[in-house]
Amino acid sequence: MFSYPLQVHPCRASVDAVLKWRPAKRSESPQSSPSRLASLLTSSKIGPQIRGDGMGETRFAAITTAIIVLSYIVAMTVSSLEKVLAYVGSTGSTSISFILPGLFYYKISSPGSPHHQRLMKEDDDEEEDEG
């Protein structure tokens, strides 16, 4: 009972981040990679009062209410925990196996990415050591 708020907090933050996400407008040439700017860090402020995490009181209440109502509906309608675990396992394994590797490559492949620059620097250092 007391762990439920601890589970709602990251769920609320994730839902809020997904609802705020907007793709960056492309102002680059078609040959270059799309911009990797952190569009999730920009926050749209709703309502006059802003919470510490940048979420308005109305948005906070709406997302929290939706999470609680949906979890209640799932708890009342699902009779077997096996079905819930099968669904969570199937979506989790699919994302880990197929979706995340592509996203990791996409993030690393941008020439402006600090990860890409660090990998290239390590390759250059290795070539200097061999030569």
Characterise the protein shown here.
The structure is a single chain. The chain is mostly helical and about 130 residues long. The protein has four helices and no strands. It has helices at about 5-20, 55-75, 80-110, 115-130. α1 packs across α2 (about 55-75). The longest helix is centred in the C-terminal third of the chain and has 29 residues, at about 80-110.
Count of helical stretches = 4
List the quaternary state of the chains.
single chain
Number of strands: 0
Q: What is the share of helical residues?
A: 55-70%
Q: Which secondary-structure class do the elements indicate?
A: mainly alpha
Strand content: under 5%
Instruction: State mean pLDDT (0 to 100 scale).
Output: 75
Sum this structure up briefly.
64% of the residues lie in helices and 0% in strands.
Give the tags.
single chain, 131 residues, mainly alpha, 64% helix, elongated
Topology of helices and strands:
Layout: H1 4-20, H2 57-77, H3 81-109, H4 114-130
